[in-house]
What does this fold into?
Amino acid sequence: MRALGFEPKLEEINKVIGNADDDGSGTIEYGEFLKMMTFKLLHRDTREEVLKAFKLFTREDWWNPRVNFKNLQRVTKERSEHTTGRSCLR
It folds into this structure.
């Protein structure tokens, strides 16, 4: 779920498993997982996600919220992505 941009808490994971486990096996098989994630992806709030990403880049410059090269370098460094200045500009 994290790979798809979701940050679930343990209680949310347990609730999700309970809701998605159609056959009561205590596990989520592929078909159940596919159904659950399709629903989640179709009903996500993209505006909220975009705002969250924007704030990630602009948190140091809250007084002037714009994504600039310095912000881009900071976020790539925090995310341990090895980039050069040139690759940040692409």
Observations:
- The first helix runs from residue 10 to 20.
